[in-house]
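Protocol step 4 of 6: structure prediction from sequence.
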Amino acid sequence: MLKNNHLKHVLELNIAVLLVSTSGVLGRYIEMPPPVTIWLRCVFAAIILGIFCWYKKIDLKVLRKRDWFTIGISGLFFGAHWVTYFYALHLSNVAIGMLSLFTYPVVTALLEPLFFRTKLNIKHVVLGGIVLVGIYFLTPEFDIHNNYTKGVIFGLISSVFYAIRNILMKKKVANYHGSMLMFYQMIIITLVLWPVLFIFETNPTINDWSALIVLALFTTAIGHTLFVISFKNFSVSTASIMSSVQPIYGIIFGLLFLNEIPTSKTIIGGILIISTVIIESIRTNKK
């Protein structure tokens, strides 16, 4: 029974990873400024999650005032992560944007002990290091003056925001439903980002609208909610490292929908990243 439950949890996490990985190709496909895209994404996702919580009668009550503070701060980090990530995608491509973001398992492994006052797990650091080596193979040579370098910088900043947000959510997911937490975070990001409508020009096309709906429903409402729920069954570091297969999914989507063809170095890096996912899955199963 325990093994069956573990396989179920691993499967749910991988479904979440697959859905979340569509953000790369969608982020590249939508032509609007990233802050506007993220605002619309959150508006649609908040509506979808609100309807889901109402239908499933999920309790939306926050038990403690300090929980409001944590949910609010994590929402701000989540919004900052999305905006910087989409800038990384616009400045480079799906592979560069996603792979620079995926330094976040290493950041998570290093930061998690500080938040939870636990001992640093050397295995997580080693696996995170393997992910970094994989990313090294997947990325081309950079020139500090070109957009690809800027894309990597935005991706690295995004990874720090994402790691902190996930760690903060780990503290709350034991007491609250993942859909409820995501619902409030979408509202917070919507409220904070609404001034961007007066700063950036907004002219969404029909294709933008369809991509936004997919982004809000599958990537955000379903994918990210399942990922948050996975924190009940895995540590944030474990979930982060196991989700490192996301860039591989993203590159495949980029190949299919944007004709972005991976190189031989990309394949080598992909093998290294997938290896860390398999190792971590086996390690948690033994646990």
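Step 5 (inspection) to follow. Residues 32-129+142-232 form one domain.
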